[in-house]
Design goal:
Elements: E1 8-11, H1 15-22, H2 33-43, E2 46-49, E3 60-63, H3 81-90, E4 99-102, H4 110-121, E5 126-129, H5 139-144, E6 149-152, H6 157-169, H7 171-175, E7 180-183, H8 185-216, H9 220-228, H10 249-262, H11 271-293, E8 302-306, H12 321-331, E9 335-339, H13 344-350, E10 355-356, H14 360-363, E11 369-372, H15 377-380, E12 394-397, H16 404-408, E13 413-416
Parallel strand pairs: 1-2, 3-4, 4-5, 6-7, 8-9, 8-11, 9-10, 11-12, 12-13
Helix pairs in contact: 8-9, 8-10, 8-11, 11-12
The structure holds uridine-5'-diphosphate-xylopyranose.
Uridine-5'-diphosphate-xylopyranose binds near residues 136 and 245.
């Protein structure tokens, strides 16, 4: 927002995060963000605080806090504690005409409830819902040049005013004809969860085809290429492998399903449970493939795991398939040495019991098998020579990202998910 020319103040309850941001240090790995942060802080258009009262003269307040999956056993709904606390905390500081803009991914119905809360507490302020579609690893690019803008606004004059305020904020993107959809609260909330449910379904569809391919000797990658040439299907998001993880897709499809149950639409969204199961089965299959490839027993076998982040160009390990597989292999008796270009420190926090290496060279020493579980560019480019220090000659490609012919033409046993 500061890069786009606005005066921005960022608020968080975490003092350590605020201190780091104030000196231009990003709290997570995201390509391009440190540079952007440093330059924005230097212009004076971006500052940070933990003191909510400092936002009192802002025209627009974005609420971008998390809506994680609730913690209890069998709980799938979104935890709205943080969104509720942020909106409630803002109310005393809302100036006349101020607009609260929800960015967080929320169950349909939340915006209407929060709008009532805002109007009750600050009668001359209003609320809009403006879902966020950025992808980790491309966050800067997606934010500066979004592929669409969705505004969920109230009916009537308040909605028109909110639309004008949002248009002013997004003036740069609108100048380049970025599609803009102005709609009601419920549609805006649903756009986000529907988009993520669709993407998750696409990935699980191809991973279901991978299961069929494994049973029949077919090649799921070629299958994806061939169906992907049909423009109605498209090749993007048809990469089979370990499946989806991260802070969005898994919890969003679960929360959507939970909301469906509440709305009496349990059977309508039941298929999302199936997508979740297909996705999680890929992890079981990876553990099984490792066991099979190591002679049927994992105990005492040294396994090098390359990749821990839920996707490349991120240090995020929330619901990461790679970290999950690494932990399960260790639980089943293997000696796991795991590495990742960026996600070792984040993995250590969640899985302190694993052994970590800082480089591939260190991770593969005396390894009986090497597993590539996140398709970082540097791992995709690995050659048999690079891994010659390993003891075994077994490489398992959990992301169908290696050059299969190259590995097959060497002394290594190459195996992957969904390909013979
Ligand atoms: C997702 C949505 O793409 C984004 O629009 C939304 O705002 C937030 O959620 P993100 O979580 O950053 O973004 O990751 P995404 O690129 O969607 O990948 C999610 C997971 O799916 C990753 O674990 C990735 O490895 C996996 N994936 C993706 C596949 O397994 N196959 C694919 O073909 C694509």
């Amino acid at each position: 927002m500061a890069e786009l020319g606005h005066d921005v103040i960022g608020v968080d309850v975490d003092q350590a995060k605020i201190d780091a941001l104030a000196v231009g240090r990003a709290p997570f790995f995201e390509p391009g963000l440190p540079e952007l942060l440093t330059s924005a802080v230097a212009t004076g258009r971006l500052r940070f605080t933990t003191d909510m009262s400092e936002v009192a003269d802002a025209d627009v307040h974005f609420v971008a806090v998390g809506t994680p999956q609730k913690k209890g056993e069998g709980e799938f709904a979104a935890d709205l504690t943080y969104v509720d606390a942020a909106v409630t905390g803002l109310i005393p500081y809302l100036a006349d005409g101020a607009l609260v803009v929800g960015k967080s991914t929320v169950p349909v119905g939340t915006a209407a409830r929060l709008a009532e809360l805002v109007t009750a507490g600050a009668p001359h302020a209003s609320l809009a819902w403006n879902p966020e579609f950025l992808r980790e690893g491309f966050a800067v690019k997606d934010t500066l040049g979004p592929d669409r803008l969705v505004y969920g606004v109230a009916a009537g004059a308040a909605g028109e005013r909110a639309t004008a305020q949002l248009d002013e904020i997004y003036a740069t993107a609108l100048k380049t004809d970025t599609p803009r959809i102005v709609t009601d609260f419920a549609t805006a909330e649903l756009v986000k969860v529907a988009a993520n449910a669709f993407l998750a379904t696409k990935i699980s569809f191809i991973n279901a085809m991978a299961e069929v391919a494994e049973a029949t000797g077919a090649d799921v990658t070629q299958l994806a290429d061939a169906i992907g040439h049909d423009a109605r299907i498209g090749r993007r998001f048809l990469n089979s492998g370990l499946g989806f993880g991260g802070g969005c897709l898994p919890k969003d499809i679960r929360a959507f399903r939970a909301r469906g149950e509440e709305l009496g639409l349990g059977s309508t969204l039941a298929f999302l449970g199936e997508m979740d199961s297909i996705n999680l089965r890929r992890r079981d299959r990876m553990v099984e493939l490792t066991r099979e490839s190591l002679g049927g027993d994992l105990s005492g076998k040294r396994v090098a795991v390359l990749g821990l982040a839920f996707k490349p160009d991120s240090d995020d390990v929330r619901d990461s398939p790679a970290l999950d597989v690494a932990a399960r292999l260790q639980e089943e008796g293997a000696i796991v040495i795991a590495t990742d270009p960026e996600a070792v420190h984040t993995s250590q926090r969640i899985r302190p019991e694993l052994t970590y290496a800082t480089t591939v060279a260190e991770a593969i020493v005396e390894a009986d098998a090497v597993l590539v579980l996140t398709e970082w560019k540097e791992y995709r480019a690995l050659t048999p020579e690079d891994l010659s220090a390993a003891t075994g000659r077994v490489i398992l490609d959990g992301r169908n990202c290696l050059d299969r012919d190259l590995w097959r033409s060497s002394e290594w046993t190459y195996r992957s998910l969904g390909r013979p």
